[in-house]
TrEMBL record:
Record protein name field: Ohr subfamily peroxiredoxin
Family annotation (Gene3D superfamilies): 2.20.25.10, 3.30.300.20
Origin organism lineage: Bacteria, Bacillati, Actinomycetota, Actinomycetes, Streptosporangiales
Sequence similarity: Belongs to the OsmC/Ohr family.
Record-linked InterPro entries: KH_dom-like_a/b, OHR, OsmC/Ohr_fam, OsmC/Ohrsf
BP GO annotations: response to oxidative stress
Record PANTHER family: ORGANIC HYDROPEROXIDE RESISTANCE PROTEIN-LIKE
């Protein structure tokens, strides 16, 4: 693969900091209350959800441009769940809620095609269950 860009970030745990190499991302991290943490910082699942939602919206735009359709008004919400335990391991689940413009033709088909080209979808395929919900 010809790599066009590499993001670099360093974190020191769920209760710490995450900082990108360029300093644009500088966040306090905290485990969510639901997992026994303070909930007073960003958590990895939120970061993954934001990245996946943005990437999927971009992939949908690329697919739609190929069919000369406008998806500027699209909205993608990613819900990332985490579960499991220390002994058996932890895992993730993802629900992608895609809100499409009412006049978009073949919206479900475009979402399915975007799921085939999105880098996050390709990275999770076979490892993380991803549900696509078209609204």
């Amino acid at each position: 693969m010809d790599v066009h860009y590499t993001a670099v970030a360093t974190a020191n745990g769920r209760d710490g900091k995450a900082v990108s190499s360029d300093g644009r991302l500088d966040l306090s991290l905290a485990a969510p209350r639901e997992m026994g943490g303070s909930g007073e910082g960003t958590n990895p699942e939120q970061l993954f959800a934001a990245g996946y939602a943005a990437c999927f919206a971009s992939a949908l735009g690329a697919v739609a441009r190929g069919t000369r359709q406008d998806v500027r008004d699209v909205s993608v919400t990613a819900e990332v769940g985490i579960g499991g335990d220390v002994e058996s391991g932890f895992g993730l689940t993802v629900v992608l809620r895609v809100e499409l413009p009412d006049d978009l033709e073949n919206g479900r088909e475009l979402v399915e095609r975007a799921h085939q080209v999105c880098p996050y979808s390709n990275a999770t395929r076979g490892n993380v269950p991803v549900e696509l919900v078209v609204e």
